[in-house]
Design brief:
single chain; about 170 residues; alpha+beta; 6-stranded mixed beta sheet; 11 strands; about 20% helix; globular
Length: about 170
């Protein structure tokens, strides 16, 4: 993805966040499936840059990046969801999100677009029983004949994992 396209999407996210409080989601691909996060949580979209690894962290915690002088922890969303690891390419992006006041980068395969999904087109997250945690799924957004899994980015990591990531950022 070109730098210009990423900048345009970042601007679209900022504009959407100002225009309306809900219903706008930044969509992206992860393992050829479409996901979305509320644009109000998105701060920036950047291309893949060098990530400094941090020892003794879970495999999905790739490390930290220096973003304009600020140290930001980065997780690979594929690995967090237990998907197969993929090589990073020119389409791979880091979405910088605000999770309860903590800036964190999430590595995704490809950024798609900002979608406006009306509340009437969002269904509750499916339940898969007690063994599968789906708390991080905000809902299923219907867009045409596709379904986007809408993530509650504040719940992708458990509170213990968030504390670990925050400690990484503050160390």
């Amino acid at each position: 993805m070109s730098v210009r396209k990423k900048d345009e999407l970042t601007e679209a996210v900022k504009k959407a966040a100002k225009d309306i409080e809900g219903g706008k989601f930044l969509s992206f691909l992860l393992n050829n499936e479409e996901y979305g996060v509320d644009v109000l949580n998105v701060r920036e979209i950047i291309g893949m840059i060098d990530v400094t690894s941090v020892p003794q962290t879970p495999v999905y915690v790739k490390g930290v990046i220096n973003l304009r002088g600020k140290v930001i922890p980065v997780i690979d969303l594929r690995l967090r969801f237990g998907l197969e690891e993929a090589e990073y390419d020119e389409e791979t992006c880091i979405i910088v999100v605000d999770v309860a006041g903590l800036l964190m980068g999430i590595i995704i395969d490809t950024v798609l677009e900002v979608l406006d999904i009306p509340a009437a087109e969002i269904e509750a997250a499916p339940k898969f029983g007690t063994k599968v945690n789906t708390d991080y799924i905000l809902g299923m957004g219907k867009v045409g004949d596709k379904v986007n899994m809408l993530l509650d980015i504040t719940k992708v990591l458990t509170s213990e994992e968030l504390m670990m990531v925050e400690n990484i950022q503050n160390s």
